[in-house]
Structures are given as C-alpha cells and as structure tokens.
Amino acid sequence: MLSLFAIAVFGPDRSPEQRPARDDGRELLRAMAGGDAGAPFEAFYDRYAPAVLALATRVLGSQAEAEELLQEIFVELWRRAGQYDERRARVSTWVMTIARSRAIDALRARQRRGGASDVDDAQVTLPAPAADRPDELAERRARSQRVRRALAELSDDKRRALELAYFGGLSHSEIAAAEGLPLGTVKSRIIGAMRHLRQVLGDGGQP
Amino acid sequence: MTGERERVEELAALVAAGAASEAEERELAALAARSAEAAAALAAHADVAAMLVEALEPIAPPPDAFARIQRRVVAERRPARPPRLGRRRAAMAVTLAAAAALALLWWRERDRRLALEDDLAAARTELQGVAGERATLRRELAALRARYDVLRSPGLRLATVANDRGATMKIFVDQAQRRWLVLAFELPPLPADRDYQLWFLPEDGGAPVSGGLLELGPDGTLSAAPAIPPGLQPGKAAVSIEPRGGSASPTLDQIQLIGELI
Q1: If residue B169 lies in a helix (H) or strand (E), which one and from where to where?
Q2: Prediction ipTM score
C-alpha cells in the first residue's frame, strides 16, 4: 500500500503556474484509462520500463527479482491509469513514486522472510530501446548527465544518506541507527542533499 | 524563511526522499491539505526525488516482458464504455463494487497487520535476548570490578602455591578490607559432575573452612572471591576436587594444591 507521502502528493491541486510542463505520457495514460491495452500501453511501457527496471534493480540488488516486480508494477500502473491527475504531478513522478513504493515493499517482504538477494554485482545495462527517437534519446542522456553531476556535487555523507533513504527504503532513524550517527545529523544531510538537488534540478533537469 | 515555511520545506525533503517518520508524513499531509504552498513544496521535492532514477543506467527488460504484462491486463481490461444498466441494477453494481473494494482493502490491511505482528514478535524475541545478554554482561562486569578492587588495594599481599604438575594458585589478600582474590592456573579440566573447591586451614588447626567453588571467569581463569569469616586466621589454602556443588569438608585424596599463606 502506498505511503501517506504518495497519497499526499496526489492530493490538493497545484495552481496553474505550478502544473507540470507538457508531457506526452499524459496522452498515453488517458488512452490506458479508457481501456486501451494496445499501442498506447506499449508506448507507455517502452518509455518508462527501462527506468523502472533500473530503479527496482537498484533497490532489490537483483535484476532477476526486479524483472518479476516489473510486471506487478506495470499491472498496477495500468489499473491506476484512471487515477492520474495531470494537475498534481508529472507522469514521470507519478510512475516512479509507485514503482519505488512497490520496490521498497518487495525489499521489506524479502527481509521479513529472512532471505538474501542473489545480488547481481554487475548490473546488466543494455542500450535504450532502438524505437526511441534520436532527439528523445539525446534529451534523456542530457538530463541523466545533469542529475549525475548534481549528485556528484554532494558530499559523500549527504549522497550516502540520500541513497540509503531513497533506494534503501530506510527512515532517518533507521539510517542513524545503522550508521551510528545522531538523528539530527542524518536529517540535516538528507535535507541538505534534497535542497541542493532542488536548486540545481528544480526546473525539471532540463539542460 | 519563516518558521513554518522552513518546517514545510524540511518535511517535504524528508518525505520525498522516503526518509520521514510516519508522524512527519502525517504532519506534511495535513499541511498540504490546507496550504497550496505546502502542496507545491511537496510536489517540487517529489519531482526532484523521482529524478534520482535518471542517474541510474536504464535497463532494457526481457523481450517477452511486455507480452506477459499485456496478457494480464487484457484479462482485466476495463470496457471502453460502461454497460447500460437499469437504475436498480446500476445501484446494485455500485454496491457490489464498493463491497469488493472494501473487501480487498480489508484483505490488504489484514496482510499488512499480520506482517507487522510477525515483525513485532520477532522484535520482542530479540529484545528478550538482548535483555538476557545485558544481565549476563552486568554480572560479569561486577565480578571483574570486585577482582580489580582487591588488586588495587594499597596493602595487598600475595601468596603463591604450586604443585609438581605445573598448577599454581595465587592468593591476593587485602588485609585491611579482609577481601581475598584467588586465581588458579593450569588446573586440568574436570568432568561435568566435579568442581574445584577452595579451602582455608585455620592457623589454630581447626577444621578447614570452605572458600567456595572456583569458577571460570569471563577471561577464562578459574577464580574465587571468598568471604572469610571475621574471626578466622587462615594459615594455609588448598584446592580439592569435589562432587558438583561442593562438599562440607575436603576430600583428602583429591587435594590438588596446598600451601602456606604469608
């Protein structure tokens, strides 16, 4: 079940000036919400599946487990397509919020069972799908470089705290306990990291 | 930045990063419900958090993954147009749908509750183990402190007793406080039904007085911190092998160490 965070994100409407920039994913979601499981759904899948799979692999530490979870995530995205409201979030934010929640749920379920992952130390990365338009591919690569540059500007401490929270699913108190740090220090690092990223990437990561 | 605005920004950053506590999530949800500014801050941080995924190398899914997903969703596909129902049948359909949604919600909550109960039981078991371990460590610490107290006393006296098989016993005496510490080395291990017992032989030739059992300390040394009766003037100390739990008087042919005290 999604956290209160996701429910809050998709809560009150943003004002017109706060609405997300044009995003073709909205059209695809509208078609999916209308019951079209054909070309629009496949285009939506092609657009977001590589990133969702990368996120799930990063969280679970296993590409095999992530590939199984990918199915569950996209079935859920399909089911909830009618709930997407473009006034409240970008499509990419909506997709990644749901994907991350499911990945963290799967991670916690595995931890409760006491299982360890078959960690794939070498992440298998394949080129982006050939169906991508060159301009879209270039745009995505430029955004990726910008995000990586922004992360590299963070101190190691801040970056680690943020990664433990976002990809590890740990709360600030769990990070403090695991790292042997005061709670206030952990909170400051995460808040500082997010502030810096928002300052640098706040326009959507556009170059 | 005003106090509340700063608080909103901090909460939004923590929630978007997935690091917030449940109380912080509820606080921000309440703020976002009544303040457009809070909602905007949360949405902005959520966008930034989602961008973290763009730092990862995308991974192409297996070629048949979409086909499998599509088969599942086709089976659940919503009709393009809802069926035309009479008013009564429509009301029943809504009621059934609501009931199904409630049942699904209840089932999910039940699973979540069971999982939380499992976690709670595991945490309680672990806590009991930790409490037991802490009690053991406290006892060991108290024993080591008592030993140290004797060793650092200013008027400390030492007697050494040895046998011809390499075993020795060192007897530390704090005469002012009448505290004793006995350490024994190179005594052979005993079977489970036997103990080493310490004895003090009075100077006046009276019956031996038990100084208790030698116990294996946290550092692996056999030791005892005997309490000597006030009127007793020990002349000799001895160690014998006795039945488990000790004896009222020493088994003479089982004496391993015996010697004069200073």
Answers
A1: strand B168-174
A2: 0.83
